[in-house]
Amino acid sequence: QVNEEKRIWTEKHVKATLPKRDATSHKGSYGIALLIAGTKEMPGAALLAGLGAMRSGVGKLVIATETEAVAMIVPRLPEATFLPDGLKKIAQRQSSVDTFRAGAIGPGTEPDDLTEKAIQVLLESHLPVVLDAGALSERSYPYRLSPIILTPHLAEFSRITGVEVDDLQKNRTYYAAHWSKKLGATIVLKGSNTVISFPDGETWMNSTGNSALAKGGTGDTLTGMILGMLCCHSNWRHAVLNAVYLHGACADEWINTRSAHTMLAHEVSDLLPVVWGRFD
Ligand code: APR
Ligand code: MG
Questions:
Q1: Residue 69 and residue 35 in contact, taking contact as beta carbons nearer than 8 Å
Q2: Which residue of 91, 190, 223, 224 shows the fewest CB atoms closer than 10 Å?
Q3: Which residues crowd ion ligand 2, with CB under 5 Å?
């Protein structure tokens, strides 16, 4: 039996759940996030997710990416550090993931054997794990204490469930809740009115966002934001919900004065300081 009751995550919820940045905190207070993303062909996905993460409260960010991608990312995000050829090192267990507070994998990566192995390593760890894009394949998940968060758009959701896109589209809330429970993973089903379903049946619909987000790269930004929020929130559910809300709220801020046709994915991260600032 799937609980289909759905509520709307609003400004009121965000105000009540966003963390404060403690005056005596230091970078260690907010942990180190691990982002496994990007290839030499798709370095931009790692950059976009990295910007989203570093604007979302982490202490430090390590980007595991192909060596060739590092030089492209550094000039736009000098605050990040790197694990060159990190996907391979993590997949082959040459590099431990135990020191991280949270991990995300998939933006700009291929759904291949190395990715699958790295996902297994993450799932065996204690980290909350975000799986997006190239990390979204049909599989089952082990029972674990830390959350598994999947962030599919409709086509990716169809790929991991085998359900036709048309069916999913007509019953987004039902399918998100059903598969969240079945897989034991949180599902962030993206699109207009993103649905967030937790494995125990708790389901929310997001109230922000608009068609300015319908552009390549905005999903990568969201993955980074969820990763960052996981590091600064004590309640991981609030981290996921607030990341989705603020991501949409940045797009809403954009269309106050600018055309929805024109927003770029990295500009979501540019707007986040002001949008988040309204809730502090
Ligand atoms: N209204 C509100 N939000 C929207 C709308 C809309 N009309 N259209 C898109 N969005 C939001 C989604 O909710 C989501 O947060 O924009 C984001 C788009 O994310 P993705 O669909 O993942 O798009 P993208 O960023 O281009 O992803 C690129 O994902 O599909 C893979 O292989 C692809 O690596 C690539 C990556
Ligand atoms: Mg995507």
A1: no
A2: 91
A3: 133, 219
pLDDT per position as a tens digit, 82-96: 999 999 999 999 999
Please report which helix (H) or strand (E) contains residue 158, including its range: helix 154-161
Angle between helix 172-183 and helix 154-161 axes, rounded to 10 deg = 50
Beta-carbon count within 10 A of 4 CB:
14
pLDDT of residue 5: 61
Closest CA to 198 of 153, 240, 139: 240
Nearest alpha carbon, ligand 1 atom 19: 219
Q: Chain-centre distance of CA 78, in angstroms?
A: 21
Output b/e per residue, 198-210; b: 16+ Cβ within 10 A.
Answer: bbeebbbbbbbbe
- Say what the pTM is: 0.97
**What does the block give as tokens for 26?**
């230091």
pLDDT tens-place string over residues 262-271:
999 999 999 9
Q: Is the CB of 45 under 6 A from ligand 1?
A: yes
